[in-house]
Amino acid sequence: MAVAAFAGGDATFEAVQRDINIPAIIMFFIFVGATLGITYWAAKKTKSASDFYTAGGGISGFQNGMAIAGDYMSAASFLGLSGLVYLQGYDGLVYAVGFLVGWPVILFLMAEKLRNLGKYTFADIAAYRLGQKEIRTLAAFGSLSVVTLYLIAQMVGSGKLIQVLFGLPYEWAVVLVGVMMIVYVTFGGMLATTWVQIIKAILLLSGVTFMALMILSNFNFSFEALAAKAVETHSWGQDIMAPSDKGKITDPISAISLGLALMLGTAGLPHVLMRFFTVGNAKEARKSVVYATGFIGYFYLVIAVIGLGAIVYLTPDNIAIAKEFFVDGKLFGGNNMAAIHLSKVVGGDIFLGFISAVAFATILAVVSGLTLAGASSISHDIYANVICKGNADEAKEMKVSKISVIIIGVIGVILGIAFEHQNIAFMVGLAFAIAASANFPILFLSIYWSKLTTRGALIGGFIGLTTAVTLVILGPVVWVGVLGNKDPIFPYAYPALFSVTAAFVGIWFFSITDKSQRAKDEEKAFIAQSVRSETGFGAEGAVDH
């Protein structure tokens, strides 16, 4: 489960089609109607490439903070983490805390500089003073790899989830998500995608708040009393509140490697990085991080309450509960459905419908952001800057971008249907490993290390990429879980500790040994880049310090 549970949409739902959920369908149509109205409004405002990629830079810090929170609070964060707390207690709580504390450190280091140096994609920063053709090609390849792997996991997860929630056949569920994703992004661009994220974030935060209040109201609003009852109820007893051999993380190396993958992988996800180009200046970028940290921190605290509440309420020993939510002693739809079932226990059918619609909105918002990031890599990095060498006609670039959205959407639907019966949870782990090992080191060092050269970034980034992919294949998730071998060649499920180290060492070595004139010019150009990254002088849009 691991990384898949946190950020990418667990694709291991034990899903079967269930009866049509009328309240969920009604809530679903209300959400779809509202977001299509926003897309129509956004389409009328989206005229230029800047509008399409970054909403014209007109999103406020508060709005962007809410949208970043929307990107971060994926269906797997909501369903996967609450399900992990329900299943294993302590592990889920540690993951929730670890996921929260890691990302602000990275984004506080990078948010302002991203806004000052970038334009549409993170490759704008990585290639700022380095070779445009080489670095943009590598960055685009890294982005598209991450987007594709992440998108497949999301499409399969969404198909399974909607199949359970709405009673739709799997194929129709995947097609529905694909069509709506294409409509939102093609017509509304970043503006529509941003507002879908904001609406989803508001709905999700409202929903989990209501659930937490309903749970705590039965314990006089005492978290301690809730935790004590969870310990009393869970089959592990006191073990759910402490590290245990029964848990997922059993050794320090796995814990450190997982933490690195989550922290650095998040800072290398192209659809999250794109969000910092939607605000007007560096000041708003900093505000975005502050607001997003608040929303995300609150969300993960509430998830702990929901997970413990699920332990207390969703127990097969409760005859009334067992009859409705358990099949052959197992929770219907798997442990990832704990929060969904709990919503019915605490709020009835109407609230179940609301939470189901929220889960759908969550998936749709994330896949829309992913698709836009993938299309931007193709149109802005590959077409406009590599093929046209920075001289592309803006109208043609937008046309390429919209065609890319449709192609990525169709590919996502086809692969989503093709991988229905495959265990594809490793794809999310792979996406995070690539983001942490290839995208992040190049991006971080291009901002902070003057001696970075094109040769170092290219070779080191490639080393990080290939190391991450190879170790995932040789590790227990793919070598044993997918390929069916007895023992893994590489013992750890999370390769980030090794692949990130390999990438940084590779970039460092091949940069300092580069004595060419080009390397000397690139080192000199760092001063100008540093001035712009600190002051915003010459950055896109108005900069207010």
Low-confidence sequence ranges: 1-13
- Biggest sheet overview: 2 strands, antiparallel
Helix-strand topology string: HHHHHHHHHHHHHHEEHHHHHHH
Instruction: Give the terminus-to-terminus CA distance.
Output: 44 Å
> How large a portion of the residues is in β-strands, by DSSP E?
under 5%
Number of helices: 21
Shape: globular
What is the mean pLDDT? 83
- Record the strand order, biggest sheet: 1-2
Tell how many strands the DSSP assignment holds: 2
**Which percent bin holds the helix content?**
over 70%
Structural class: mainly alpha
Cα-atom radius of gyration: 23 Å
Please describe what this structure looks like:
By secondary structure, the protein is mainly α. 75% of the residues lie in helices and 1% in strands. It contains 21 helices and two strands. Strands 1-2 form a two-stranded antiparallel ribbon. Helix 6 runs parallel beside helix 11 (252-266) and helix 17 packs parallel to helix 20 (496-512). The longest helix has 50 residues, at 338-387. The radius of gyration is 23 Å and the shape is globular. The chain starts with a helix and ends in a 10-residue tail after the last helix. 60% of the residues are buried.
